[in-house]
Predict the structure of Acetate--CoA ligase.
Amino acid sequence: MSTSAPSLLLSGEQLDRRLEELLQQKRFSPPAHFAATARGRGAAPDVLAESDQAAFWAEQARTLHWDTPFASVLDESNPPFYTWFADGTLNVSYNCLDRHVLAGHGDRVAFHWAGEEGEQRAITYAELLRDVQRFANALKRLGVGKGDIVGIYLPMIPEVVVAMLACARIGAPHNVVFGGFAPEAVKDRMKVSAAKVLVTADGGRRKGKTMPVKAAYDAAGELDSLEHIVVVRHVGIDVPMRPGRDVFYDEILAAADDVCPAHPMEAEHPLFILYSSGSTAKPKGIVHTTGGYLTGVSSTHKLVFDLDSERDVFWCTADVGWVTGHSYIVYGPLCNGATSVMFEGAPDYPHRGIWWELIERYGVTVFYTAPTAIRACMKWGAEEPNVHDLSTLRVLGSVGEPINPKAWLWYHVVVGRERCPIVDTWWQTETGQIMISPVPGHTETKPGSACQALPGVVADVVDEKTGESVVQGQGLLVLKRPWPAMLRTLYGEDERYVKTYWSRFGPETYVVGDAAIRDQDGSLWIVGRIDDVINVSGHRLSTAEVESVIMTHAKVAEAAVVAQSDASTGQAIVAFVILRGELEGTPELEAEIREHVARYIGKISRPKCIVWIDELPKTNSAKIMRRLLRDIMEGRPLGDVTTLSDPAAMADLARRVAAAQ
Ligand code: PRX
């Protein structure tokens, strides 16, 4: 359906013209060469009757290895506490490793790992299985048993996968914390989950710089629950080790036995906790379980990426510390016996063409990244990808935030060379698995739309007051049927789980927290969050968490944090700050507060700019009117300010914002 024959390797004005031309096209049919053989060609995502959904997931679940086959599929007797396959038992690490080795695929590469400084390691399924068994034994010797929580705070190195699967093998739920989070934030997350062991590294590398990780963690203070810290020697720097508590990963691995049988776990046994930001300062410990989660991630990994484990080389550029890494670097691909790429570094180090170089080197066929990264690559120019052979690519994926049509088209033309279907995948930490996405080879795509719910998923757009379906137009995105990889609760906070997701329209409707538009064809367009969650570069951050950290700064009296649209990161954080006493806002103080946030949460939470103010706009009942702050930042007309306690203050505020930009 292209308006003219696609030409390859465009750049400069020619590329701009092609993008303009395609911008008019609006719809993209599955490429004929792809549709003929695609896995999804028989899948009609919208035709499953409600009664068939559970049966559909049961069929997917049966592709796994069960030690005890399940008879019960979905138990809906106590909504919203749903269970899946509850009377079955299985082991996730067995499904991800032993199964493939026993089938004769031990020599298949599980990960092509590329280090920042050009190091390369290929790790086969057999090698991974050996290390996982050893590390599982080592964890047992450290006193970790079924149900004990193990914290993991590691860079993007193969040991992170070993640690996760070793936990799964012995039924110890892991709590992985993104390597970019500050040690203080890690300590908090270890504390609330009462972690018994933390697996971390001597140090990390970022764009050529080395920084201590273990020592920084130590400096954040003691935790009673933490009995041991396991240290992976990654960058080779000196590490303070406390005798009796701290051990080196390589030493305990070398001392451990090679064989650790995979114990069957109940399907509902927790596999991991992953902390995610919510609308309060306290992060939510999202709990995922064994059987349903593995069913959801393995089946969507196959369908959405048209995966063929014999042929494909899959690369998801996320960090394992986020749910995308859990589901589509570790569990989905390994369960499917796929070969993946894992890259330690940033997309612009050692140079801005490194991603394309790696795609060419490993013959990547399926590439999955975030819109922010695509926008950065756009800025760096088509010349970078154009000098590489990207002809192996078949499917391109996007995740984490809405993708603007311009970025979608650039991805399509410059990276996909107009041959590869794009899957814009919508999901969340809570959903565990992709929920809304085109099926490549089946769905007609529209740049900017995540299209349709996948088979077995029932998504709806509803009126925010009545809960009635909005046939065409904007409303709240909800999920109306349970799905296997759904979160089961918030760790230790059942009530918060019910209140956050299931209270608005009753315990059978999961309220996502996003607004969406349904167009005339029924395609879904995700608009963004409706709560106080900010999405910076596809990373979910809580305004309340950033505010509460800013308020711990000695010179700050009050703060309010809002999102502002940003051309490269999607959204950016803006902080409105009232200083104590007679203090004046200065660039030095701005830098100090930004660093304060980086220190307590992580660099990604650092406000892009700080606006110094004397007063925050508040209602007569003293609630901060964030809507007004957002409107000011977006340059929108202010609308109704009559409920403000001091309407005149808004003009002054607008002046200060202009001065801060
Ligand atoms: O607002 C949606 C946005 O990211 C949120 C979930 O964030 P998190 O739990 O960190 O998981 C991110 C990766 C799965 C959603 O509520 N989001 C995610 N994917 C998309 C998206 N927004 C628009 N389009 C997407 N494809």
Q: What stands out?
A: The longest strand covers residues 556-566. The longest helix spans residues 125-141. Residues 1-7 have pLDDT under 50 and may be disordered.
